[in-house]
Design a protein that fits this description.
heterodimer, A: 388 residues, alpha+beta, 12 helices, B: 239 residues, six-stranded mixed sheet, 10 strands
Chain lengths: 388, 239
Amino acid sequence: MRLLRNLARRRLRTSLTITGITIGIWALVVFSSMANKVDALVSGGSDYYAGKIVVSDGGFGGIGGQPMPIGQLAEIAAIDGVDLVVPTVAMIASDIQGVSFGPPDQIQAFPFGADQGRETYVPQLAQGRSLTAEDEGRDVAVLGTSIAAKRSVGVGDTIVLHERNFEVVGVLEPTLSTPDTTIVVPFTVGQQLVHEDLPSVIRDGVSADQLATAFIVYPAADANDAAVASAIEARFPGVNALTGDAYDASVGSSVGVFNSIIVGIGLVSLIVGGLSVINTMAMSVAERTREIGVKRAIGATRRRIIRELMVEAGVIGAIGGILGVAFGALVVVLVNEAGRSSGTVLFELTTGTALFAFAFSTILGVVAGIIPAWSAARLDPVAALRYE
Amino acid sequence: MTILEARNLRKTYRVSRSNTVEALRGVGVTIDEGEMVAIMGPSGSGKSTLTHVLGLLHKPDPNHGPAPELLFDGQPVTDLSDRQRTKIRATAMGFVFQAFNLVPTLSAIDNVALAAEYAGTSRSKARDAAGESLELVGLADRASHRPTELSGGEQQRVAIARALVNRPRLVIGDEPTGNLDSARSADILRLLRRLNRDHRQTFVIVTHDPEVGAACDRTIRMRDGLVVSDGRSATAAVA
C-alpha cells in the first residue's frame, strides 16, 4: 500500500514509464506469438519431411511443379537405398484462396494404404473419419481445421472444389502447420482434379490415371538419405529430391533469422522501457533525497533503502508486464479471430511466452532499479537532510 | 549516570577544492541521563555538526590532533561500521528536525510506525507502539491524517512521537521549534519538558531560541567550532 502510494505520488511519470514497458512487453508478446506460429509451421514441415524424400519436378513439395508420369515410380523404386515409393498429387485449391500467411490452401491425395504404415506424420481427426480404400472414385474430403473454419463446414456438409461438390467426411485436429490448410481427397479424384486443371495442350496428351505431382520416397533403414536424393536427381535431370535435412537447412535457418529479427524488435523496445525505469527511479530518488536522508537518520539501513526502491521499480515492471501481456493477448486473439474467416491465423500465444514476458518485465524493473537504489543508499544522511 | 561522553571532536568539511570549513575544532561534552541540554550559538558555530556527530550520523575526524573519543552509554562508538551506527540510531536514539521531515505519502501513525519498524519491531506491533506514542503527544485523534492535512505544530508533534516510539535513551532535536510561531513553540517545549520529566528521557536540543535555552537544565554555548561555556541555566531551576 505504501509502495503504491509512492508510485501514485508521481502519477504522470509512473504511468508514462509503465506505458513504455507495456508497449515493450506488448511488442515482445505479439512478435513472439508470431515467431511461435512460424516455428510451429516450420517444425510441422520438419516433422513431415523427416525420414522421407519428396521428389517433384519443380515447385515445392509437389505444388506448382510439372506433373510427373506415374510410370517413373518403378524407376525410382529401383534406385539403390529406396524402400518404398508412394505417388501423390497436390494442387493449390485456387477457388478458396485468400490472402494468407504461411502455406497456401491445397488439395492433396495419395493412394490409401500405399505408405504401408511408413508415414509417421499423421494428423489426428477432430471429427468424422479418415479416407479409406472404399472412398476411391467418390467425391469425399477430409478438411484441415483452418479450411473447415473458413468455410464454416463440418462432417456431413458439402464443399465445392473446382466446381465439384465434395462431401466432408472428416475434419483434422489443428496442427498449426500445413495440414490445417489441406484438403485430402481420394487419389483418383485428386488425379482428375489435377488433370482438369492442366493446360489443354498437355491435358490432351495424358490421361488422369497416369498423373502424379510428386513421389514420396521412403529410404531403406540403412540408406543415406542425401545419397539417395542425389541418385534420384542424377537419374531424372530437372527433378528435385528434398530430404528432411535439406528442408531443415533451407527453411529452418531462414526462419531462424526471421524469428531473431522479430524477437529482436521486441527486445529493443524493452531496453528502451528499462532505461525509462532507470530514469523514473533516478528522478524519484533525486526528488526524495531528503526523505531518504530522514529514513537513514531514524534508523533505516542501506539495505532497507535499496530494497524499498528496488521493490518499487519491480512493481513498475510487473504492472507494465501484466498490461503488456494483457494487451498483447488481446491483439493476438482479436487478429486471429478476425483472420480466421479468411484462414489467416497469424499468431500463437503460448503460456510460456506470456510467463516469460511477465517475468522478464519484472526482472527488468528490479535490475533497472539497482543503480538508482544503490546511489540512494550511498547518500550521506546529513547532506540528504539539508537537500532542498 | 553519563549517557554521552565526547572528547577531542573535530570535523572539517571540504566545501570546494581549495576551501575547507573547520566545523568542530576539538569539542568535549558530557551529557547525563535524564538531562535536557540546549546547544546554542550563532550560525556556523558548529552546533548542528556537533549533534550530527553525537547522533552518530557523522564520524569525528580521526586524523588530526588528539584522537577523538565518543562513548554512548559507556561504549566507544567512533569506530563502528555504518550498519552498527544505524542500528544504535534506530533503537536507542530519536531525532527531531526543524523541517519536521515526515514522509509525505504516509499517515501520521504510519510515519511513527516506520521508525519502530526500522528498529526491528513487527509491522502490527509497530502500529500499536505508534498509536501509544501519538497519544503521548496528544495526537491520537489525528493518527490517520497525512502530513499535509496537519498544522506545523501538529506535524512537529508527530515527528516527536516518531522520535519517541522506540523509547530511546537519547533524543536529539535540531531546532525543533525553529519553524513554529511562539505559541506553538511554547507548546512543543512544554511537551518535551514533560516527556523529559515523566520518562527520564535525555534531550539534546540545538536552538537559536533563548526561551528554549532557558527551559533546559543546561546550556552549552558554542562559537567557531569550540565550546565557550557550559553551565546550568539560572531560570531552568525555577521553571
